[in-house]
Records
---
Amino acid sequence: MSELVKLTINDKEYEAEKGSLLIDALLKEEITIPHFCYHPAFGTDGNCRMCMVEIEGQKRPQISCDTPVKPDMVIYTKGEKIDAVQRDILELQLVNHPLDCPTCDQAGECKLQDFYMDSGFYVNRVNVQKNHALKKVDLGANVMLDQERCVLCTRCVRFTTQFTGTGELGVVSRADHSVIDTFPGLKLHNPYAMNVVDLCPVGALTSKDFRFKHRVWFLESFDAICNGCSRGCNIKVDHRKEKYVDDTIHRYRPLENQEVNGYFICDEGRLSHKNETQNRFEQSLISNVETPLEDTKDALSQLIKEENNTLILISPNLSLEEMEIVKKTAMKMNATVSGYAPQYIDESFGDDILKQNDRSANRAGYEKVSISEDEKEFQNALNKASLVVIFENSYFDNQLDLLENKKVVSFFSQNSPVCEKSDIAIPVASFLEKSGTYINCTGVTQKVESQMKKDKQSEEITSLLESINVNY
Ligand code: SF4
Ligand code: SF4
């Protein structure tokens, strides 16, 4: 570990790593320091000049993103002198900035708006005509650019050069006519492109998926993981419960976890929030006839009593808790449990950044709770079974004939051809409507505490199995 040294910030003593960036030390201690261009993923750029601090013994203010921590430094991030410097730089930023706040998607989470309100700079001293630029540039993929709102921090440019290595974006033209654009013949088409929307400190880059849909202050958030693949990237789930409408997820945003996904997520995972709401299976069925849930549960208890050769097929997207309760239930029923799920492996999906070919969240959990996914064992159990119970596993979706002459019970959160084919089909909570523990592709165990407010009939698999009588 690097040497820790003492430093004084705004008359209070702190410790920081010698040689680390001063801005990192300030951010770690949650000391407000205005900045646009600095991002820990890309290091120092020093173009916005907003992160100025006063350092005792130095004549002029310094940018904290390019100042290494030294022993016994005395620093001021506020005070008459440094406030005036930050305000002057902000004033320059605002010379050409449009008055879009009332209609801007970034309002409520905009750094420019926040710093402006913090600095108390309310009087516009510049009376010259503002420069105008393009308001609606389709950059490709899922990103729109408003060139007028850009503060030219170049975070988006550096993302494409330093993270994806695709280099689609650049700064074109000069001085106060400089704008962000794609290079001729290029579009922002890379599988991680939408991260530039989160990186953009202002409302210049917006996502086509989310823009003009919701004011961010109406959304609630909780931390979770993506189940788009076995990486299990950490995400913020932004959702809203409106009157007469089910609690709905409106977007995922990346959440930093250096052990799992760093700062970013892929676009496909980000847009998979739609899976939580679209095509939901919501009404329990007996022989494809809509039936109240309690009656369906009774019919299920009866069916379990009658059948004595049962195969339970689970999905590698179930949580550890769900896998455990399914196993416990199977023991009571003397049933075989299989986790066979080759259909979640997609050789065309993975890359050497984050994306994994295994498109399930918890295959590593099988080993933890000793559930086999062996093909032979599964085929043998399927051949013998008179009853097949399926938990969220899509294996039979395109091969319903394998279920001919068998009784079928299915638990799904989304509509599946298997539901119609089932003797009993019960809707269950979707991935983010339930809490649970998952192990990712590198063995990291992650817990999700869902905060969705459910109206839907669908229950969690754990509570459903606890409420069903499976004793002979
Ligand atoms: S578009 Fe946003 S991220 Fe890109 S340079 Fe402008 S302000 Fe920065
Ligand atoms: S890499 Fe995988 S887990 Fe991460 S966001 Fe993409 S699909 Fe989701």
---
Amino acid sequence: MKDILKVKNLSKNFGGIVAVRDLSFEIKEGETLGFIGPNGAGKSTVVNILSGLIPADKGEVELDGVNITHMKPYQRARLGLARTYQIPRPFPELTALASVTVSALCGKKRKNQSFEDAAVEATHYLEFVGLFSKRNILARDLTFYELRMLELARALATTPKILFIDEVMAGLNPGEANRAVKMIAKAKEQFGLTIFWIEHVMAVLVEAADRIVAIHYGSKLAEGTPDEVVNNDAVIEAYLGRGWKEYA
Ligand SMILES: Nc1ncnc2c1ncn2[C@@H]1O[C@H](COP(=O)(O)OP(=O)(O)OP(=O)(O)O)[C@@H](O)[C@H]1O
Ligand SMILES: [Mg+2]
């Protein structure tokens, strides 16, 4: 399988804090790559850099052979990169349908598409994530679970090749979290996605991921199959703890 994303020697400081330190890894086309590490390890910062929200201090990023290091977020979206946020970022005053329509107009397939066509497409994505009946509700009136699903619909509506998920389960009750995880699997299958997935619930990534990259203080700690990574001494020491399987 070819590498769809190549991250080379990425570094990012915030004032005196080193958030990402000389980090390199690849994502293969079609795989689910889990991305783990303790709170503050730099995971969201990596997604923020890869999606173009913040610039890296050093390093390069290639998407499908194209150097996207200095591209704006919308340019990356057109090349097939989409993300969700750890804390949902809705347009509070837009309806669910309008929110997803905006994404449909911004994504990869954007070929002079009319607003009406984009709205029809958006309706399909809302249906897919189970929000069809909420299409005319303002985003600010949605529940947290519904906001998470709206985030997913907005990302999918850009017709991405690769989807970055920054914690879909956080803030959800166990039943909702379970539904959200199943929704990711369904999206991957239906749309043939490559997925880069940050989650603190190890059992979920062990099940869903083909490989896992673990980071600590912004540096790579381990990389390999889920089995290799969860049994890695450095990962157990820095993040999982010895008894994690009993609590998973
Ligand atoms: N915009 C910012 N300004 C200053 N410091 C920041 C900023 N964003 C992140 N940091 C710091 O960078 C480090 C990495 O944070 P990051 O949010 O990437 O961690 P994370 O691995 O996503 O953690 P969590 O699992 O809690 O979401 C932390 O020390 C954090 O406080
Ligand atoms: Mg984070």
